[in-house]
Predict the 3D structure of the following.
Amino acid sequence: MRAVRRRRSSRDPQGTDARTRILDAAEALFAERGYDATSTARIARQAGVPKGLVFHYFPQKIDVLVALVDERTAVEELPEDAVEALPGDPAGTLSRLARRFPLRASPAMRRILFREAGTHRSVGERLGRLNGEVFRRARRALELALPGARGDQARLEVAAATFAAVLIYQENLAQLSGQHVDPDAVAELIAHALGA
Amino acid sequence: MRAVRRRRSSRDPQGTDARTRILDAAEALFAERGYDATSTARIARQAGVPKGLVFHYFPQKIDVLVALVDERTAVEELPEDAVEALPGDPAGTLSRLARRFPLRASPAMRRILFREAGTHRSVGERLGRLNGEVFRRARRALELALPGARGDQARLEVAAATFAAVLIYQENLAQLSGQHVDPDAVAELIAHALGA
Amino acid sequence: MRAVRRRRSSRDPQGTDARTRILDAAEALFAERGYDATSTARIARQAGVPKGLVFHYFPQKIDVLVALVDERTAVEELPEDAVEALPGDPAGTLSRLARRFPLRASPAMRRILFREAGTHRSVGERLGRLNGEVFRRARRALELALPGARGDQARLEVAAATFAAVLIYQENLAQLSGQHVDPDAVAELIAHALGA
Amino acid sequence: MRAVRRRRSSRDPQGTDARTRILDAAEALFAERGYDATSTARIARQAGVPKGLVFHYFPQKIDVLVALVDERTAVEELPEDAVEALPGDPAGTLSRLARRFPLRASPAMRRILFREAGTHRSVGERLGRLNGEVFRRARRALELALPGARGDQARLEVAAATFAAVLIYQENLAQLSGQHVDPDAVAELIAHALGA
DNA sequence: TATGAATGAGGATTCATTCAT
DNA sequence: GATGAATGAATCCTCATTCAT
């Protein structure tokens, strides 16, 4: 999570620093065609910077991917209970969680995470951590929303895992299978499964 | 869907014909490192055939992927009701569906489908069709298992879509997020959501 | 020491096989400008082959150097006493050794050996082995030529080492220092040092 | 031959000025890996100075090499007869010459001189001049040590040339051939060749 | 059908050098 | 003087693909 402030140099007429433009271009291209199919030359061209500059900031191509994952998929450091759980309203609670989703990642970044997770360890690890985070929040939200602890713990975990999967992968589920899975509808489904 | 029978040549000590060995090698490699990162030379080496032979069978590299998807992700032509739905037992019905899953695809092929779906139209289409098939079967199974039509149609569709997603992507969900989502448990969850 | 016979293909109008032409070109260029300053593209151009072919035969640039050293600096497998030592004529014996020098290496190869020995282990090792071979032959020749064992053993070794150095490095001594050191004259000098 | 005194700047915690540190780093690196294989960036890093500063002091990379050769291989301006020749003791005289060797060059600089002489005219010239200087001194020393002029002039020159070669290249002889050639022993050998 | 040499476009990466600050 | 971002030519190497045998 870089916070270095970069000054606008005279060589930067676009007003965004070169490093950021490189990451922007890479994000769009990796999402569209995949990491391997995207050449560094193309990233540079789309970013409007000379080829060499990509390597000035990112010594290896893989470092571009790593930087994207590091800097653009940060899990917000929300207080655990930032999403106010409404006792008796698990569906609404999950829906709110979905909306205040802690994953600060563009649809493009999600596609990248998803696609490259299987082949690049660091990406896979990050995706695993994100999934775990969402899972834990969902479980906690459900526990708070269902104070009577109706429904055993095991089922609650299955519910949380299912919801996390749908939430994280919705982007890809939609694109790959051509079918939208609406998180709100799933939230409602799950609430029914757990509730009265 | 090829069914051509190939004779065993004298150069084929493994007892499998060259074309099959090429596809086997490609399946393993594409799953492990992705299509773009796998060279035709490597496929040939792993298959134990000369480089030129790959192009004898598959004029272009992409044809290897297409053949894999065509020949190794076939949706079985099951009769619609091959999975006997037990009225009153939606959970069991879904579980049986999961077990008699119509997708004849190795874990490796599922990873390939999944990974390349976003960048190769033909793969994406195939995945979409598979997902649709599973979705339709799940919906039909639920309709039969819940004859009273309790729960409206919309919720039933959400349930079928969720179940299809978990079923198709379980391979990847497990691998990517490090968390198993047991189809049987999800079946039970969904049954609760729809049932009494 | 390759002995593979290469057929003359129709694509080889020069009548020398491509691999040999690549090595010829590399030998000349490495000797003239050094290994690092010689690009693979230039080798290919001078050899009259496409760039890619260099890497077909030599997966890495360094392999070209290694092949040169392996195949073009072979120590002849002469019987130990192939150079007939004339008792009483150490000078003549050394001169004959110099002329029937066991190092089958062009002046170009000697310059390459010399220059790259310090930075490429395999080259350095080969040079060391060559030097050792020449040293041992010179010592043996002197022992045979001076049967009375006049002059102690230590001095004889110094003589052999000095002669080996002059013999192996004459190419470079001449070029680098602009001064020829005639092996025959050194042979005569050494004979005087050891003889009556 | 620079003699400019450089002040110690506040950015120079090592207490050596930047220019000197650059040359020190270059000397070590050129000796270890060769001129071509050493990037200016690496020199800067090893010297602990920013990349730009290298080009401030040395407008071109080659200027670093030239400066090293100019400033660090100086032939001492000894009076011709600084090495007292002892008539009748040529071995001792040569040994003393070797010890009071006029070449002020570190082992590293000798390796550089040696390696780059063949490809960089200025280095080659300097090496030639050094070799000539040592040769002339050795010849003069021998003439003085052997007043009777026994041994003809031609043999004396061969002796001087051989001794100069051993002296100048001992560093490399040892390193490359793994065999030490002791200058004192060679001096003694040569004395025998010329003396009674 | 089988084989591997041949081809050249393209890709990642390096690097000397410039220059605004 | 000091700094490091910027530049683009050049380098090593990969690879799909062709083709003569």
